[in-house]
Amino acid sequence: MINLQIVDDHKMVAESLSKLINESGVAKVTNVYYDLKSCREGLSEELPDVFLLDIALPDGDGVDFCAEIKKQYPKLKIIMLTTYKEFNIAKRALHNGALGYILKNTESEEMLAGIETVNRGEQFLCEEIDVLLQEKKDEDTVWLSNREKEILRYIADGLTTNEIAKTIFRSTENVRTFRRNLLIKLNAKNMAELIKKGYEMKLIW
């Protein structure tokens, strides 16, 4: 039986995933974390065979965290489990040591196959990501939705989160989520770097 741990800040997602895995007979979930702080503490006490890691977490970027824990625990087998179907993010995750990259909307059979494959020390990409990487392997493109481009433009113009929220008729929490997602997609450490990369990539002008 494969011992598995999960870090995902969405409790319902983590609970559903745990139920699926525990009932599969393939693996058992030994720990679930909802942020990176508790995850660091938990990993220092017990390492799993396979580690399912979300990307957008409340206290950090899961892709950066992947590189951090691979340096600390080189034998840890990591699967990125995310909603991000983005070429650059998947490429960076694999570069940082992830053995697997699976979208959260993946069928349960493919999810379990990924866990078994990564546990054997082999790379596993869900079908959508595998196709994406093959199609864009010679490109270095960041894909943003129209809303993300709009918000990036407002950030570059110097609008605050509250001002953007009022302008696009969304909640401030929703705008904060967009800002966090933009940092991840453009691999930027702060808003200044985000704006700089936005201009360099011609996502804003």
List keywords for this structure.
single chain, 205 residues, alpha/beta, Rossmann fold, Arc Repressor Mutant, subunit A, 2 domains, six-stranded parallel sheet, two-stranded antiparallel sheet, 10 helices, 8 strands
Summarize the structure.
With 205 residues, the chain is an alpha/beta fold. It has ten helices and eight strands.
Could you please describe the fold and organization of this structure?
With 205 residues, the chain is an alpha/beta fold. It has two domains: 2-135, Rossmann fold (3-Layer(aba) Sandwich); 146-200, Arc Repressor Mutant, subunit A (Orthogonal Bundle). Helix content is 53%, strand content 16%. It has helices at residues 11-24, 36-45, 62-72, 87-95, 108-119, 127-135, 146-156, 161-168, 172-185, 191-200, and strands at 2-7, 27-33, 50-53, 56-57, 60-61, 77-82, 100-103, 124-125. The protein is globular and about 55 Å long. The termini are far apart.
Helix/strand layout:
Elements: E1 2-7, H1 11-24, E2 27-33, H2 36-45, E3 50-53, E4 56-57, E5 60-61, H3 62-72, E6 77-82, H4 87-95, E7 100-103, H5 108-119, E8 124-125, H6 127-135, H7 146-156, H8 161-168, H9 172-185, H10 191-200
Parallel strand pairs: 1-2, 1-3, 3-6, 6-7, 7-8
Antiparallel strand pairs: 4-5
Helix pairs in contact: 3-4, 8-9
